[in-house]
Amino acid sequence: MSVTENNRYIVQVFVGALSQHYEALSVEASKQTTSEEIVSCIVDRLSLPEGSCGGYELAEVIGDSVGQECKERRLGPSESPVALMLLWPKILHSQQEFYRFYLREKLNDCLWTDSFTMDPQLIRDYFHRFMYQPKDREYPDLCQLPDLNEQTLLENLRARFTAGHIYTYVGSILIAVNPFKFHPIYNPKYVKLYQNRRLGPELPPHIFAVADAAYHCMLKERRNQCIVISGESGSGKTESTNFLLHHLTALSQKGSHGSGVEQTILSAGPVLEGIYSVRPVLEVSDALYRASILSVGPVLEVSDALYRSSILIVGPVLESGCYVLDNVDEKYEFSRLKQSMEMVGFTTEKQRRLFAVLSAVLLLGNVEFQPRKSAYHHDEAVAVRNPEVVALISELLRVKQETLLAALTAKRARASGETLVINYRLPEAIAARDAMAKCLYGALFDWIVLQVNHALLSKKDTLRDHQGHSIGVLDIFGFEDFGLCNSFEQFCINYANEHLQYYFNQHVFKYEQEEYRKEGIRWTNIDFMDNTQCLHLIEGKPSGLLCLLDDQCNFPGATNETLLQKFNSVHKENNFYEIPQRREAAFIVRHYAGKVKYQVTEMREKNLDLMRQDIVGVLKNSSMAFVRELVGADPVAVFRWAIVRAFFRGYFAFHEAGRRQRLGRGEHN
């Protein structure tokens, strides 16, 4: 028995030979819903003709543990099937014992047929179909499965996916299996097909149906709605979000309050997605860092400097054995990105500055270091192997090449009133380069988000008279496990997912079962994995993993090796923490989704991940105001100051124009 919000229940009714497509249908009902109402609902959904005996009725069938004898009872029109379900035992003695409702044509007036002995062959041929999953059948709604368990669920999803059906319902929930290819089921014909259609058996499961259900639920109940999209990394969440937004936009534009807000939202998607796709470049290994940049190379055609940078980017990438994705028109994708930027409000000049900084970020991945020639035998200082790349970065960011070269290979410190120059070793130089790329990219992305939000607010200001409701679409990033490549980034992402799972556990399991207990509902308590202790392992104070990491980052002389030793000594007895069997620089956390091994290498450096002051100083001296603003202060403060500055510029411009007009009038007089 399933329970939805507002004390609604899912009643499953088997229809047998009355339908060629379904063995059972699920109906949402309350304790007050009558048998007659459920019959009417199913008859309408199946479009059944009038029965030979004057209609249809529900029957309650109870099978014994032997499987040879059944007890059958007709439900009266005013009886409550939900009330009967609550009386059924939660634990059955065997697989042959069952409690079912099924739809049939009306029979005689006798309610109970006691000791109703059925022929064994009839039991195998008829009721066996209700109790076990047929091998040659796939269900569009998992609630229709006669026997719902992990095996039948996975088999049904596999059968549907093999048949080309990537969507499957679980009541009002939609499961999407990523096909990693485009399916032609999202064109305007399908948009129109799924408008004004409730979730149900009339049409195949589709993400458009979820959007339509949320939209009409908002209109009917006059309440804000929310659609949550969850799944592992690479499962297709962002693409699903785009399909939802397109369908919601098509629906909202039909109303009387359609505006440019919808188009701005749609245009913002490709902008944020296009820039955000650079993120994996900035959080994996150095080899992948450079390899992933290929996707930007052929499309950087904003200026001569960007064009030359694209050639340098492609060079080492091709040598590393990477390749361009098939069936991807990068020139078209880039033109689509620029068009979306224009729709959001990015002027040509803003685009030029954005691409200049983004190109500099990507080019930083091509900066290589080599040991510097020195007279000292033990000198580990490094120099830039390819200064021509630094020259391009300097040109893009409008900074001096020699000062940027110096900042990438050395740092300055003051001691006893004197300035000391300390040369970087290879790991320190790489960390300085990567920190510069990440911080520049982070500041750039924050600036883009602020620009998009400002464009939405500007459009929204024109609709002050209309106070409507909204539909929120939450695209949750997925759980990640990259085998031997899990580092600080995956640790942070999985920590966030652990919190989301905790929220899910609290609201779906704990709070719901407490509600059942208050209402006196009889049910079998559902055991679930409580991940509170896993969260405490990660974030607990003062000995959680994050707290220990911060301590080790502030402790003089600490290394990643001492960090791992601290983890192991403090948490070796923790049930959610494991030490690898073989000696390696790693630790294991037992997440709700499974065990993940994290490499401790560079974890301290990534936790700090601060741009060196020498590099900040170089960028603050850029001749491009945009670069100075990105690194100079908090992006929100910079954005607000830009608005204030624009206001005063406009004010003084109007003031000056008025003064000139007054002077002109005086001359004429």
Q: CATH topology of one domain, which one?
A: Kinesin
The CATH class of one domain is identified as Alpha Beta
Q: How many β strands by DSSP?
A: 18
- What proportion of the residues form beta strands (DSSP E)? 5-15%
Q: What's the Cα radius of gyration?
A: 32 Å
Fraction in helix: 40-55%
CATH homologous superfamily label of one domain: Kinesin motor domain
Structural shape = globular
Instruction: Indicate the CATH architecture of one domain.
Output: 3-Layer(aba) Sandwich
User: Overall mean pLDDT score?
Assistant: 76
First-to-last CA distance: 91 Å
Runs with pLDDT <50, length 5+?
109-133, 282-323
Largest sheet: 7 strands, mixed
- What is the helix tally? 23
SS class:
alpha+beta
Organism: Timema monikensis
Family: Belongs to the TRAFAC class myosin-kinesin ATPase superfamily. Myosin family.
InterPro entries: Kinesin_motor_dom_sf, Myo9, Myosin_head_motor_dom-like, P-loop_NTPase, RA_dom, Ubiquitin-like_domsf
Protein name: Myosin motor domain-containing protein
